[in-house]
Amino acid sequence: MVWADMTLDFASSALAPVFGFLVYSLLARNNDNGTLTEGVAFASLSVFELLQQPMMYAIDGVEHVKTIINSFRRIQEYLQAKETEDYRITPESSSSSSRTSICKVVEEKDMMLKEKPALEKYHFSVTVQQGSAGYSDDELILKELDFELPLGQTTVIMGPVGCGKSTLLKLILGELPVFSGTIVTSFSKAAYCSQSPWTTWGSIQSNIVGMSPWDQEWYASVVSACALSADFAELADGDQTPIGTRGARLSGGQQMRVSLARALYSRNSVLVLDDCLSGLDRTTERHIVDGITSLITMINYTNTPSGHHLSFADYVVFLDSNGMITRHGAKDSMSSEDEIVQEVSEESTTPRQPVDPADAELPEEMLQELDLLDDPDQGVSRMTGDLKVYAYYAKIAGPWTMFIYLLACATFVFAIWVQWWTNANAEYPNDRLGYYLGVFAGLGLLTVIGCTLADRCGAQTFAQHDDAVRICPAFPEHLLTALKGPDCVSHLNKCGYNNQPVRSQAKKHTLASELMHKNRFSQDLELIDNDLPQSIDSFIFQFMSAIVSAVFVFIGSGYVAAAIPACLALLILLQFYYLRTSRQLRLLDIEAKAPLFSQFLETVNGIACIRAYGWTQNYSDRNYNALNASQKPFYLLYCIQRWLTLVLDLFNAGVAIMLVGIATNIQNGSTSFLGVALFNIVTFSSTLQTLVTAWTQVEMALGAINRIRSFVKTVKDENVATEIEEVPEEWPQHGAISFTNVSASYETSSEPVLKDISFSIQPGEKIAICGRTGRSVSGKSSLVSAILRMLEIDSGTISIDGVDVSTISRQEIRRRLITLPQEPFFIHGSVRENIDPQEGATDERIQEVLRSVDMWNFLETRGGLDELLDDDKLSHGQRQLFCLARAILKQGKILIMDEATSSVDSDTDTVMQRVLREEFAGRTMIAIAHKLQTILDFDRVLLLDKGQIVETGNPQELLANDTSAFRALYESLGSTTEEL
Known about the structure:
Elements: H1 2-14, H2 16-31, H3 38-80, E1 124-136, E2 139-150, E3 154-158, H4 165-173, E4 178-185, E5 191-193, H5 204-209, H6 216-225, H7 229-234, H8 252-265, E6 270-273, H9 282-295, E7 300-303, E8 315-319, E9 325-330, H10 339-349, H11 364-368, H12 387-397, H13 399-407, H14 413-427, H15 433-455, H16 474-482, H17 488-495, H18 506-511, H19 514-556, H20 564-591, H21 593-605, H22 607-613, H23 616-665, H24 671-714, E10 737-744, E11 754-761, E12 766-771, H25 780-787, E13 793-800, E14 803-804, H26 810-816, E15 818-820, H27 831-835, H28 843-852, H29 856-860, H30 876-889, E16 894-898, H31 906-919, E17 924-928, E18 940-945, E19 948-953, H32 955-959, H33 965-972
Helix pairs in contact: 1-3, 1-15, 2-3, 2-15, 3-14, 3-24, 6-8, 6-9, 12-24, 13-15, 14-15, 19-24, 20-23, 20-24, 21-23, 23-24, 28-30, 30-31
């Protein structure tokens, strides 16, 4: 349909003169009353020119109207969709609008955390009666709930992985539909700290304060309570440090403590925590709990940690695997012989798995290249196209595309051919009429074909249709070769699923702004694929039209040619000022959308927190302000376009006055040519305006090419020519790894992150890599990155089963090794596509693996392997278990884990440890350890500090040594050897 509209669009302007002259010539010859003369021909061409633009606008408008209607329907469907409904009965709800009729509504008082909440009219903070809830009526997660949570006490919700602990919190916050029963809460707002910390673009301070009023004393108390003071002291800008996209400048633990600080700073009377303390060591956890206790006297403290939080509880709720409550009540009232309580109590007295008080190692790539968070193309983002950029575009487009653009110029041969035709008619009227008409028609057909192809050049780059004309697909291929998105490049590279040509150095893109990458693949490619071909097409047409129109004007009166230098000087001056202004405004228009997109993404990611805090109106206002700011450049651009129209109309009027004045005073020209000149003046103004506008769009689109060109040139291909050795398909057969005098550093670092590392790992050996975390660089992540060839070594060799890895393709190395990263990663697709991206396993094997990690029953009830996987409906523990199942399916002798169990609860950790022992027995295992308790049964520990090996040996033997550096590290994290 699009091709038909485009063909009709260009045919209306290119073939109209053909049919017009055909009918006129045939009638003139048959009636023997004349022939096609210069005056008639050029006057007719001028009339056709006048009709061309309205006809093109009318035809283009049909397609635009269709697009508008479809967009309107989508917006209408969204606006008519059911709004999120709070099913709770809260102090702010009314009995008339409530879904139940048995709730006396009371007015909620203003409450300060240091004051006793004014909730005397309520006996419980939450009351649920016969409640069943879930995401749909046929997918209930919580069933037949009957419980009451006391006011002003700490309630702990417990249960196995995937039982619905986090879902129950969402129910309490009003984020989950209730399909039966009632839920009554004494609050309408709560301070919510989700399991995955929510951060916004801005400083650490702005993230903590949020929309709450500023209070310096309270802020200092909250920062101290959340153990953030030491972190601020180590940051150059303290709490004013920008945290970057998705909190990129902070470690995971720091993000969680910032989220907790926001919850405390908000002074809400109800604090809802979703397992936000599980990743902390016992000392830091106790510090935070004591800090919370010192800040408040009465608080409803609701969270979903694992068993070791039972000692903090006043009230306990137990959920089973079916989402039903088995027991609930005050902890002290439960019998110590109770099986559930006894089990949990045993867990609470089990030695905690300690982590560093800094609880979080910033990725060393981030420590070394923190400055890469800024857009490296910022300096060229507003550059115009120079000759190199034009040459780059021509090279990427290819010779055939350039030929198509030249083919589109066939329409401008019309005037020349008509001139030859009319000259021939002056001597031999209507002689060789078929010849002239045939060539004229051929030029018209070439124009239609050339203009249609030129207009769509590159626009079908991402089209999936088999018959799509993919004239210029190289730009996205160049970008994809340089980058695969900031999130998935590291995961795909580490997991070995990167079969696409994504071979850039991953560290650059894991740090760079996510919005910058989206800008490259959205707005920049939109400019190149759609706007640039159309702008070049328009520029060529309007440029040639302007020349032809100017020639006709000067033919009408030769004396007007004397004004050519002055006219050109004026137009060049006008172009200079207009281009400089409009180009900047167009680029500002693009750049002004980034804050709007960022605001939108932040709102979507944190919508549950925003509603819980009661900040909906604040974020609505922020979105309105961002939208308003994003429209200012567009409005200013519209103003200067109106200014250009006025100036060009005045210029055109001046030329017309000069032409008529000269023609009437010096009567030595042809009156027919004077008429042609006047007809061309009518369209000359709009031609010049469209020409300057098209040139501005070309310059802006070439600026996008310049940014992509700069990006592609600065991103180095990680593969080198020496990586050509072929290895057997079963490699590595044994799993032996050897480091020999390995040193490595990041490009922007003058200090090596690995210094003369030498050690060997025997086949089937389990080795843990540990070291101090936080702001100091120990080298753990760097060592693993060196094995995966994501960090280039400066000297030494790394060999696997005797093969030097520097001689093997990096993609091949990652494909042969099994990697289990700390952060779960999913792609949009089915369960089967997520668990087996390479599609090498049978359904029976996939089901067997999912059963081993206790996930198959859950997935089977939700559609099985072919069902679309929605990771948002998986708990954090289920996500990590799913990724473990994916690692089991991947065949290999070497498993590399980056603290895959650091942020899961004890139940998930137990399952993962069991699966690791059973499924990976006999395989070489390398684990980056933050929790040292998890690696005490490993064969060997490798202790790193500042890129050097400090100590190595059996962990139990090292702990028995009073002078051991490993023992000192172990005890510094809150554990003692007596607990073993």
